[in-house]
Amino acid sequence: MDWGMANRMAQVIQSDGRCLFLPIDHGYFQGPTRRLEQPGKTIAPLLPHADALFVTRGVLRSSVDPVDATPIILRVSGGTSMVGKDLANEGLTTSVEEAIRLNVAAVGISIFVGSDYERESLLNLGKLVDEGERFGVPVMAVTAVGREMEKRDARYLGLCCRIAAELGARVVKTYWCEDFEKVVEGCPVPVVMAGGPQVNSELEVFEFVHDGLNRGAIGVNLGRNIWQNEYPVAMIRAIRHLVHEDGTAQEAHELYQSLEAEAH
Question: What is the DSSP code string of 40-89?
Fold first, then answer.
């Protein structure tokens, strides 16, 4: 691995081999998501606890302080919206040249395996990897499922992750699922865990995060579970305890509760 690529990878994946990514890119297809209406205000207290921020170039320029900035993973795909016909019909919206201009650590792109736009999204990934490898910028592939959440099973996600790795992604972001180790074992590059099932409590979030880490994920990419929580700083610190301190779900929950009590 060339020095530039290795250096950028080391910015987002910490020396313990783990990572905590904070995504705030939701607006690129959802618009002003609840509690992300003012992204700069939302992320300010959270950034000290995140290893990298997953964000579009517009929000990066408008809402993120360039001084002492958290490493950036730049969202470079899009072109669809919640009110459009098909979320899977994405294209590349941002060039690697722009990513270098913004001094980002990595770029991220969604792929839609099994959709009507499978081929286009996978060719987009291949094109982005070509450019990224040329300039030493790692690519994170995101296994998107659009509105079809029932696709979140180990067989389907394992297929998506392996294809992403085969096409050159350096890291793959995918959803937690039952038998998550099958997804990880079939993917020769690091797997980062996105959101899991719909849950009703913080403890349930900690439980699926802990499970996914135990089954081979190197870290998490969690947004709404953190910044839509009533106590987002307590939430991100508890998740960081799981990721970087090998904490249990119960320990994370106790930490969350103590920090919540302090915040009152």
Answer: HHHHTTTGGG-SEEEE-HHHHHHHS-STTPPPEEEE-EE---TTSS-TT-
Give domain status of residue 62, yes or no. Answer: yes
Helices 232-245 & 202-214 angle (0-180, nearest 10): 20
CA-to-CA distance for 49 and 11, rounded, in angstroms?
14
Catalytic residue list: 173
If one counts every other C-beta atom within 10 angstroms of the C-beta of residue 254, the result is 16
Bridging pattern class, strands 91-92 and 77-78: antiparallel
The owner of tokens 């939302």 is: 42
What range defines the domain where residue 42 resides?
3-228
The answer to the question of residue 255 being in a domain is no
Residue 194 lies in a domain: yes
- Decide if 65 is inside a domain: yes
CATH number at residue 85: 3.20.20.70
- Structurally, how many domains does the chain consist of? 1
- In tens digits, the chain (264 residues) has pLDDT values of 899 999 999 999 999 999 999 999 999 999 999 999 999 999 999 999 999 999 999 999 999 999 989 999 999 999 999 999 999 999 999 999 999 999 999 999 999 999 999 999 999 999 999 999 999 999 999 999 865 666 689 999 999 999 999 999 999 999 999 999 999 999 999 999 998 777 889 999 999 999 999 999 999 999 999 999 999 999 999 999 999 999 999 999 999 999 999 988
Q: What's the gap between Cα 62 and its chain centre? A: 20
Give burial (CB, 10 Å; 0-12/13-18/19+) of 138. buried
Which DSSP state fits 191?
Answer: E
